[in-house]
């Protein structure tokens, strides 16, 4: 009797903690590494679909407000643009249901480039050397454009159109830098 109860208890514990999954396999057309290539994008941390993401956004806004040096602010804006692109790619790789969130996240990230170029112009007016940060901005814009082209080949329809618009926006910023 004790053996039967012990066996039954063991079976219940095993089934309670077993990780059984019957979900359908995701059809992901690409991997993060395939899209990014050799460019080291920062790890995004929390993604916008996380319920605590707004804490991250509040933190980033506070840090952005605290930074007063235009060169450091431009550097921060480039970092934020890279993080948003990385976030968008992670969202694309997590399934089709997050494609709209991914494209809007990438679009918001590209807006940081506009802020960075304005801060570089401000630093230049103040007589601060901007050649190094300008080079970083240019390199980042080139890599974003390259990554957006790779992403465009993986999609069709509205997602592809939105990615093309972002690529054109980045191309225009590249010409201005």
Overview of this structure, please?
- This protein has one domain.
- 72% of the residues lie in helices and 0% in strands.
- It has helices at residues 2-17, 32-36, 53-66, 70-93, 99-125, 131-152, 158-176.
- 27% of the residues are buried.
- The model is unreliable at 21-25 (pLDDT under 50).
Summarize this, please?
This protein has 177 residues and is mainly α. It is built from seven helices and no strands.
Spell out the blueprint of helices and strands:
Blueprint: H1 2-17, H2 32-36, H3 53-66, H4 70-93, H5 99-125, H6 131-152, H7 158-176
Key features of this structure:
mainly alpha, 7 helices, 177 residues
- Average pLDDT number: 85
Principal-axes shape call: elongated
| Tally of contiguous helical segments | 7
User: Span between N and C termini?
Assistant: 81 Å
Would you list the SSEs in sequence order as H and E? HHHHHHH
Number of strands: 0
Structural class: mainly alpha
What is the CA-atom radius of gyration, in angstroms? 22 Å
**Helix content estimate:** over 70%
Uncertain spans, ≥5 residues at pLDDT below 50? 21-25
